[in-house]
Write a structure and sequence with these properties.
The complex is a heterodimer of chains A (259) and B (637).
Chain A (H helix, E strand, L loop, with lengths): L2 E7 L8 E7 L8 H14 L21 E3 L2 E2 L21 E6 L7 E3 L2 E2 L2 H10 L19 H11 L6 H5 L6 H12 L8 H14 L10 H5 L7 H19 L3 H6 L1
Helix pairs in contact in A: 2-6, 3-5, 5-6, 5-8, 6-8
Chain B lengths: L14 H8 L5 H4 L3 E5 L3 H13 L2 E6 L16 E2 L11 H11 L6 H21 L24 E2 L5 H18 L3 E5 L1 E9 L2 E9 L5 E5 L2 E4 L20 H8 L4 E2 L4 E7 L22 E5 L17 E2 L1 H5 L9 H13 L11 E4 L1 H7 L1 H19 L8 E10 L2 E2 L12 E3 L17 H21 L12 H20 L5 H15 L6 H21 L11 H25 L23 H4 L1 E6 L7 E6 L14
Parallel strand pairs in B: 1-2, 1-9, 2-5, 9-17
Antiparallel strand pairs in B: 3-4, 6-7, 7-8, 10-16, 10-18, 11-15, 12-13, 12-14, 14-15, 18-19
The chains are: A alpha+beta (259), B alpha+beta (637).
């Protein structure tokens, strides 16, 4: 099959970008979308042009590196997959495919299709963890965790941190990402001691990074390659409200001070 | 030169305790005076960086990824072993130790493996406390499953994404320390050289992958946690970015590279579908708990739909050859058995390079729901790639390069022969011998990072007399200049061939002559082809763009240049090791029934290679002395 590509090219964070058109010829439908870009890049290199810069690593949908907006959809046309798990069989011969980076103020473009998602890391650094230093853990079976809770925690923990939720949201909200981490840790007995402070800090950092607010359109859930449920956003709102009440109204000032 | 592994005295079960009793400590108030560089943020690197910072050391953490969470440990699927004996099925530290030593075909260091089994239980405790959502039973206790090479259920798991969850646990511990200011995080920095001061590792040279700036960093010790070199074969289950550059450049500065020919070929990967293929995807070994491996008995049946082949015309070859372990025979054995079946013309799928992994019986026995719960995400991955539904027809699988047991030589303290250079996780050579058992890589990475290095590094740091060097010293400026020159040299070639075409060609040489089976003639041929290809690379490769920008081609060129050197050493080591053991199968050395034939009298040593710098690599041996275990012919029958 043959397709035409319209690709966002931008030399660096500071330069202006524009769309360029390329042809991708003699493709197999079993090729992955990124393998198609590999072929295009080989041709570009051989013809003395700059290959298209895009982020990728594991190519099996788990590292969260790949981050392409394909025809206006984060990770392309198929549901519940990352860009690297999108195959050319999802397109038709002769298609014109538009490829852009994920766009958000909190994800500045570094080059072509590569963005800076370190804002996600800074949110985790503020509170997306359980404070347990190496060596201080009790026996793993000392704290039973109900299977139901463990499964919910796992559903939430499946997030790969790709940022598709932000790219899909008209407000560039990171609520699905933040709520997934909060739900993972807050669902478990091990996560209870820091539950309040965790959500307050993570949300504060999220706002600081310039992500927008959630207006409940569920676009995030629809594009999430790991099918993270927007129900977690409701849980985050609830946990946040309770944490605010407990810390601010009930006067647990020592908690407020550490935020 | 005989290498000294610095194995502590005493009986095997007391060596680690004896070591800890005698090791030097650094007082809490002094720890903040020391700086440690940790390169890599996978299971080993992230757990080490977090644990060292918790102790009070000042840590600088480096990774070429945009986030520590992307390290390729994230892709490990199946599970992590620990000698918890929660199943009451006869497991113990000694049994995990023995299984691992035996699985490694008696080519690992006894004391290291015993320590690994000892600390395995602490890892599970640590991860559960971090909130890693390991699978639970309804009563709230942790669940287990079985993995290859063991007759007990000791593998802990988090659905089909155990590596991801353990990595996120370590990443979160690391993030906490970054947030507290105890770890300084350098993302998108690639280590391109090691700096030695008076023979000690005291810093690194990095290239910032966005700006292209080449910069040096100084420290009191350097820890490499930079993973394996499976991408030397081009097609592998590794992430596309995984590379050997940090380890190889440390090797060129004097660190010995041990057992490079010990590579693991995983039996259950999705077969190659075309020439454009960029990577191979693993289907976790855990699938072999419920899936049955088979090929048609007769060649002429290979093209038929699998369901139409009656039971009596199927050859469940693993169950037939290895009745007591069956489909859970170790990886090296299962891979070779698949290759044999395909070599006999009984392979299935495109090119006859595939065997069936069939779940029909398990679905009949347990119901589709149970199978979905256990392996749902793996079946999804399989469908995305092949567009086939494995609940309805068997998967097709074929072996692929998956792990490298070889790596930089380290002693019991995980320090290389270069003082101050520590190597942990897959990047070192020490624990898996000639073959790694399933669910042992996650165990080793976290053991090294959480529970071994934080003890052993003190012993080195406490002895340092000199002040930490500064990056304006001549050792740093000189090494930085060499690194800059190398980058400039790559950019100046301006030839006609793409980097990828060289990588692919190298991968084919490696797979054809240094893959699942190896022989003298093939290895000698590879040793001619690789240097010739390397020469061609340095005269005709095309690296577009320039150095002071985000340039993925330049990044890749540096990594492929290193593979072109390391590949030669792998083949040299494979040629030198005139025996078969684990993943290293020399067709000249096999038993009558085709199993690996070791020569313990002549080859029970670790082959540690010193970089030759023009004169060819020089071999140093560390004899493997087994005090507890009797080396025997492995049998899984």
């Amino acid at each position: 099959m043959n397709v035409k590509l319209k690709v966002w090219r931008q030399h660096s964070a500071k330069s202006e970008g524009c769309f360029e058109e390329y042809e991708a010829k003699n493709l197999s439908t079993d090729m992955s979308f990124l393998e198609m870009l590999d072929v295009v890049n080989e041709d570009l290199t051989l013809s003395g042009q700059y290959p298209i810069a895009f982020e990728h690593d594991c190519r099996e949908g788990i590292c969260g590196s790949c981050s392409l907006m394909i025809d206006g959809e984060p990770h392309g046309p198929e549901d519940k997959v990352a860009t690297c798990q999108t195959y050319m069989r999802s397109f038709k011969d002769g298609d014109l495919i538009t490829i852009e980076p994920f766009r958000s103020r909190a994800f500045p473009v570094l080059k072509d299709l590569i963005i800076d998602r370190s804002s996600f890391d800074r949110i985790i650094q503020r509170g997306g963890f359980i404070s347990v230093s190496t060596g201080s853990a009790p026996d793993a079976n000392a704290i039973p965790v109900s299977k139901v809770k463990a499964d919910v925690a796992m559903d939430a923990a499946a997030c790969i941190g790709c940022g598709a939720c932000v790219a899909a949201c008209k407000n560039s909200s990171a609520m699905l990402f933040v709520s997934a981490k909060a739900a993972h840790l807050n669902s478990l007995p091990q996560g209870q001691p820091e539950k309040d402070i965790r959500v307050l800090k993570m949300v504060e950092q999220m706002d600081k990074e310039g992500f927008g607010n959630c207006s409940n359109t569920y676009a995030c859930e629809a594009v999430c390659p790991k099918a993270i449920s927007a129900d977690f956003i409701a849980k985050l709102n609830r946990d946040y409200a309770i944490a605010s009440i407990r810390t601010k109204l009930l006067g647990r000032e020592e908690v407020v001070e550490t935020i | 030169m005989e290498l000294n592994g610095k194995i502590p005295s005493g009986p095997l079960s007391q060596k680690w305790d004896n070591y800890k009793r005698d090791a030097k400590l650094v007082a809490p108030s002094n720890k903040r005076k020391y700086e440690v560089i940790v390169v890599g943020t996978g299971l080993a690197g992230a757990s080490a960086a977090a644990s060292l910072a918790e102790l009070g050391y000042r840590v600088k953490s480096f990774s070429y990824h945009d986030s520590p969470r992307r390290a390729h440990s994230v892709a490990a699927q199946g599970g992590i072993n620990a000698a918890k004996n929660y199943r009451n099925d006869g497991d113990s530290v000694h049994r995990l130790f023995y299984d691992t030593i035996k699985g490694g075909d008696f080519r690992a260091r006894e004391a290291n493996v015993y320590r690994l089994a000892q600390v395995s239980v602490n890892i599970i405790d640590q991860c559960a406390a971090q909130g890693v959502p390991l699978a639970r039973e309804y009563g709230g206790m942790l669940d287990n499953r079985s993995f290859g090479g063991a007759q007990v259920s000791r593998t802990f798991y988090a659905r089909g994404q155990t590596g991801q969850q353990l990595l996120l646990g370590a990443y979160q511990a690391l993030s906490r320390q970054i947030g507290l200011g105890a770890v300084e995080s350098f993302q998108r920095y690639e280590m391109i050289d090691l700096v030695l001061v008076n023979g000690h590792a005291k810093g690194i040279v990095t290239r910032h992958l966005v700006t292209g700036e080449i910069k040096t960093f100084a420290a009191d010790a350097v820890v490499l946690a930079t993973g394996g070199y499976g991408n030397n074969w081009y097609l592998s289950t590794y992430g596309r970015l995984s590379n050997a550059t940090a380890a190889w450049r440390a090797h060129k500065r004097g660190a010995y590279f041990a057992n490079p020919c010990y590579t693991q070929i995983h039996p259950t990967c999705i077969p190659v579908s075309g020439d454009y293929q960029s990577k191979l995807t693993l289907m976790s070994e855990s699938l072999r708990n419920d899936g049955r491996v088979w090929v048609p008995m007769k060649k002429e049946d290979t093209g038929k739909p699998p369901a139409s082949i009656p039971e009596e015309d199927r050859d469940y070859y693993l169950e037939r050859k290895y009745p007591s372990y069956g489909n859970l025979a170790p990886r090296d054995i299962s891979s070779r058995a698949a290759k044999e079946a395909c070599d006999e013309g009984r392979g299935v799928g495109p090119g006859g390079l595939g065997v069936y992994l069939d779940f029909a019986d398990a679905i009949k026995r347990l119901g589709r729901h149970k199978i979905e719960e256990r392996y749902g995400n793996l079946f999804d991955i399989y469908k995305e790639i092949t567009s086939e539904v494995a609940y309805e027809q068997p998967m097709r699988i074929y072996p692929a390069i998956h792990y490298t047991m070889g790596g930089l030589w380290v002693d019991y303290e995980l320090m290389s022969n270069v003082p101050g250079l520590f190597v942990i996780g897959e990047a070192n050579f020490s624990d898996h011998g000639a073959n790694r058992l399933g669910a042992s890589a996650l165990m080793q990475g976290l053991a090294d990072g959480y529970f071994v290095l934080p003890y052993t590094i003190n012993n080195y740091l406490a002895e340092i007399k000199e002040k930490r060097p500064v990056t304006t010293q001549s050792e740093f400026t000189a090494t930085e200049q060499e690194a800059k020159d190398k980058v400039a040299k790559l950019l100046a070639i301006n030839g006609k061939r793409t980097i990828n075409s060289f990588h692919k060609e190298l991968g084919k040489i490696m797979w054809d002559y240094c893959g699942m089976t190896r022989d003298k003639a093939g290895l000698e041929k590879a040793l001619q082809l690789i240097p010739a290809l390397r020469e061609e690379f340095w005269s005709t490769v095309n690296v577009p763009g320039d150095g002071e920008e985000l340039n993925q081609s330049l990044e890749k060129a540096g990594r492929v240049a290193d593979f072109l050197e390391l590949g030669e050493l792998v083949c040299r080591d494979a040629l030198d090791r005139e025996e078969s053991c684990g993943g290293h199968f020399r067709s000249e050395h096999q038993t009558e029934d085709g199993e690996a034939l070791r020569h313990d009298n002549t080859y029970s040593f670790v082959a540690a290679w010193e970089y030759g710098n023009g004169s060819g690599p020089k071999l140093h041996k560390e004899q493997l002395v087994y005090e507890e275990v009797h080396m025997s012919q492995r049998s899984y029958k």
